[in-house]
Every structure is written in C-alpha cells, then in structure tokens.
Q: What sequence folds into this?
C-alpha cells in the first residue's frame, strides 16, 4: 500500500492489537468502518476518545468509571453492608449482568502470585481490610474464579479478615443453569453432590 | 450498569457492530482498551478520528484513500496501461498484498444485481469504459470473484468493452499454491485440468 494510505495501515495495525481481532479481521473491520465513516467510524472514534479521556479507576473499589468514585460506590441504595470481592472488572461486569447482587464491590486486579511480585498490597487487600473496618460491612462475598490461583487468594483474604469477625462467604459451586451433566467436569459434579439440598 | 458508565456501555455497543466482534468480544476489547487507555485507546481513537475525517473515495478508480486521487492512481510508475477490475476495496487490498500487479485498478463496489437495482451505472462501468478510451489502456484484467454473480458481471463488462478492441483477460483458475487436491471442489479440479500446461 502506498504512502497516503499509511494512516489506514496504521489503523489496521492498532485494531489488530484488540483481543479477538487478528490482522485479517482487523482489515475487515477497518474496511467496514471506512465504508461507513460517517455513520459508524466518526461516532466510534469520538466516543472512544471521550472514554479514554474520562475513564479512571474508582479510588474505593477499583472499578473503572468516569469519576474518582464509581457509580456503584456512589449509589446510596447499594450501601447494604455487603462487599463482593472479584478478581477483575470483567468479573464485576459479569456480576452486574446477573442483576442479583445489590451491594458494593472490591476489585483485586488479579490473584496472588509471589513469583510475579503480586503480593497483598498490589491486590489492594489492605484497602479491603480498611473498608471492612470503616464502612460497617456485615458480609464479604468472595466471588473469585474457581481456579487454583483464585481459591488460594480467597483463602488468603479470609485469613486476613478473620480477626475482624465479619461474615465471609463464597459463591455456591454446582451445576450451571441449563448445564448437562455429561458435559461437566468431575470436580463440578463432586461439588454439586456434596452441596446437594432437599428437593 | 449505572448512569456514569453509560459512555462505556455505548462504546461497547458501537464496537459490537464491527464484523468479527460480538457483544462478548466487544466487552473484552473495551476492557483491554480501558486498562491501556494511555498506550492503546487514546492513540487508536485519535487515528480513527483522523482517518474518518480524511478518507475519501478515489474519483478515478473507487479505491479508498486520503485524497480525490488515490496513491495508486497518482503513481506515474503504475501507468502501465493495465487496469485490474475488482469488486471491492478488500479485493484491491488482496491484489496489492500479492505484489504481482503493477498497473491501476477499477473498483466496481459490487456485482450486477437487477433485483437489487444494481445496474452498470451503480458499478461505475460507464466510467471504466471512459477510462479505457482516455487512458491509452492496453489490457483490462477482470479479477472478479469466481462466483456466479462475479462471473456474470465479468461477462457483462467484457461485452461492454468489446467494441473498444482492448485486450480483456481474467485471472487464471486452478489449484491454489499449497492446495491439496483432496480438499478442492470438483469445479476447481475441472478448471485446473482444462487449463493444464506443459511441465
């Protein structure tokens, strides 16, 4: 491609860095944008620049919003005394899509990993302990991923908060809604059996 | 999600309209952008706004560039007298990646489709005939897709240009480089056999 299309090539290269897009799909996406540059490309660029300029991490919970206190932390209706601890903002979004949790969050930003120098301070665990002390918290729900790293981190947090006497819970494990037993791993079936309940 | 995150939700909705991205992958892409808002998101938004503002269709060939005459049409080294006719800018990009063609292009923007009101004027076929008359063109290479619509359009163009006496050719059909016979369709094998050549 020649010199005056360098801008388009650069845009394709930048788009190809997005997760889920490779060089080929980035080209297709940019070509679609070029064909709809008035209706789609300009609004998308404008919105992206606006979000890039205004987005910031909530100083309280670590969620990403557009002010120093995110919309969830700022909502008085959500001061229920329950804090849901998640690994990542993506997990917070997933919890919100579930529409089941009415309290506030604490985003760790990862899991403990001493080999990578990810200790409790990096994961904002001291701040969680401070919130438990300050915000009249009644329950901490550990909604970490059901992985080895996630569960190790959950145990560490439970130990760190044990002295506060706050109630500590974790998400139930079992058969997903719509799940078929034949496709579930053995660990999930075992957990669902151990946690069986009266029908 | 609450009000102040509406901007982020809107951005996800816009991203989900890109080909190759759905709601879930758009969320992942936006979250990655939010986490790298300085290094990736701001440059991407800036570049996209710049391209949206400067991109335009080449008045001669229909390619997308940043001026009324695209870089290929403006390049005197490419005035070889050969015009390659393609359906779409994506096909032009594919030809350019092949680095085999040194002439100029004519982008139709689709194939003939009377039922959809896509006639010769919409596909800029009269402009192609005018270029053949004006630009001392020696050869028109029909590089349309090997589909029924593509080949119908190719035959229409060949008929429309027949009176000019210009040489009209089309891309060779045969076994792709690296192609395995067992995976090729019958039509391709037949075409490759009919066009066989001395070894």
A:
């Amino acid at each position: 491609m020649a010199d005056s299309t360098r801008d388009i090539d650069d845009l394709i290269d930048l788009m190809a860095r997005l997760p889920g897009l490779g060089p080929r799909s980035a080209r297709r996406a940019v070509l679609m944008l070029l064909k709809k540059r008035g209706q789609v490309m300009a609004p998308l660029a404008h919105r992206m620049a606006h979000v890039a300029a205004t987005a910031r991490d909530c100083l309280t919970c670590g969620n990403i919003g557009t002010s120093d206190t995110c919309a969830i932390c700022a909502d008085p209706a959500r001061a229920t005394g329950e804090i849901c601890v998640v690994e990542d903002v993506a997990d917070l979004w997933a919890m919100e899509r579930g529409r089941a949790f009415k309290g506030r969050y604490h985003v760790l930003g990862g899991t403990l990993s001493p080999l990578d120098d990810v200790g409790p301070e990096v994961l904002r665990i001291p701040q969680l302990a401070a919130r438990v002390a300050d915000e009249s918290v009644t329950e901490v729900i550990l909604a970490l991923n059901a992985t080895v790293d996630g569960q190790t981190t959950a145990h560490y947090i439970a130990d760190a908060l044990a002295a506060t006497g706050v109630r500590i819970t974790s998400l139930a494990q079992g058969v997903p809604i719509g799940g078929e037993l034949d496709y579930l791993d053995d660990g999930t079936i075992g957990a669902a059996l151990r946690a069986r309940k009266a029908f």
